[in-house]
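Hi L., both proteins are below.
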Amino acid sequence: MARPKEFRVEEALELGMHRLWSQGYEATSLEDLISTMHLSKSSFYDTFGSKHNFLLTALTHYSNVVVGQIAGDLQKGSALAAISRSFDLALNPPGKWPRGCFIQNCAVELAHRDARARARVRNGFKRLEQGYSQAVIRGQENGEFARTHDAHALGRYLASSLNGLQVLARAGIEDRALREVVQVTLAVLK
């Protein structure tokens, strides 16, 4: 009979994900990861199998939790207010989230050479895009947005704008300039 786990898997997953998010996959040694997660090596391997499998699990978790929260919030209230909130969240993330996007970091660092990571990254981006597309459709249906553009194309545009904005924020671009980008992005919807 297998011993029960003496740690909370989701808590360890969050800790490890945040380490990879802030430091990067290659720059985080297995020892750093295990130490951050407060696990023994055997517990790590028994639960996640390998550092790479942990990364894939963390990408799925991020997509389900963080991107899922954003996509869910995009369906609340007025479409314009919801989209605007998503950009505000990107510029002012909650204290527990590093600035930027874990999926975006993995896209830049790994997706060009790791097909399994690329598939998880694409899934996360697709989920964000769908959340925006649904918000745009709602906004078009209730008259908040013009119907001159395809809602799915606008969803892709908003997702790519959000990612670009996060890159600029991480590069230290001043807040005023970032807010101007948000204003121009939102103006496309009207």
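That was the first. Here is the second:
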Amino acid sequence: MKNILYVEDDAINALVVKKLLNNTFNITHVPDGESCMSLVSQRYFDAILMDINLGRGKMDGVETLHKLREETRQAPYIVIAVTSYALPEDRERFLQEGFDEYMAKPVERQRLIDLLIQFVGR
């Protein structure tokens, strides 16, 4: 199974996504950008699902993405924004920031699985 890192400060959202993807991917959850950066320096993930509003941490999802891109140029990650920013212009804004894809919350199970399979396979 592919390993997916989910960066999400809301424990309920994290639990929901873990349950949605449980039988298809191995999901590891961290609550903030700092934990994300620490963990990716220790192990590899096939993709990262990134919330944008990481209220508890010092970095939001966009700042974490930029730091991740800066520090992992040799092995760039697939990073998908999973966010409650759901206006039509939000998708374009996050893609321009450097995310590989965008998904508005609440996530739909099959759409999220299909998106991950498109990027990383099974």
